[in-house]
Design brief:
The complex is a heterodimer of chains A (about 160) and B (about 150). Chain A has about 160 residues and is an alpha/beta fold. Helix content of chain A is about 55%, strand content about 20%. Chain A contains seven helices and five strands, in the order βαβααβαβααβα. Classes of the chains: A alpha/beta (about 160), B alpha/beta (about 150).
Chain lengths: ~160, ~150
Amino acid sequence: MYGRILVPVDGSSTSTAGLDEAIRLAKNQRAKLRLVHVVDEYVAYQSYDISGTALYYAGDLIDSLRKSGRKMVDKAAARVRKHGITAEAAIFENVAGRVADFIVAEARKWRADLIVMGTHGRRGMNRLVLGSDAEIVVRTAPVPVLLVKSVAPKARARKKKAI
Amino acid sequence: MFKHILIPTDGSPVANKAVKAGIQFARHLRARVTGYHAIETIHPQVYGEGYTIGSNKIVETLTQRAREMGVRKIEHVAKAAKAAGVPFRGIVTIAETPYEGIIETARKQKCDAIFIASHGRRGLAGLILGSVTQKVLTHSKLPVLVYR
């Protein structure tokens, strides 16, 4: 039914919760996964000043973001393959756009049947707004989106205690 | 994988599409389905100095009618589930708001996922996320599949 599943990853525990669910689903559906990571270069470019010296800085930062992103996404793909699931990994660089727009565009281009992503299960204000990337994806995706709440480690410990 | 999927519906065309897809999803996973429809609590209107228009009897009648309509909407889901050979149970409850009813029912029935349309009868296709769906996403601890 959902043979092509797109999974945005960023290495956080939230995104890992989404990836784990995607693995379970892919195993069950014999689906193919495509992991995408968007390097948010915007963060780096925000840090340069008029003198231009900081631009070097930005370049270094972007380079390391790229490298660590590539490493992270490859590691995630290896983990998926360990379960006997076909996985491809892709990395994108984002300068001015929204990360969510890349994900939606990629879902369209790759003809994904489903997007699976983790959202943070934070309490209070943050809980009320979802992850903003996740929310934009749900609002604009051309395909169904499976959102997986990750439970914060602290909350998980509390829950265990309560039992 | 998911064993018990909650599929809420408000009976709108968009929700009906999600119901169909949700049942197919359940069939693939060999999961069972609980169909759910929420009836919103009807409050008598209070005017002036505690003067109410709409007696308890009217509220009762309206609730009864809403319940009958809800049951009909669920029967629609039941039929689709039966045709697909998916184990099914239908539930209609009165809830303060639909999203609370959805989350409460998922919890009580021990569902492990919610399959919901991106918007219902109040939404605008392709543009926004329905208010009920949005609230379910915000408050549910279960995985939620938003169908569009």
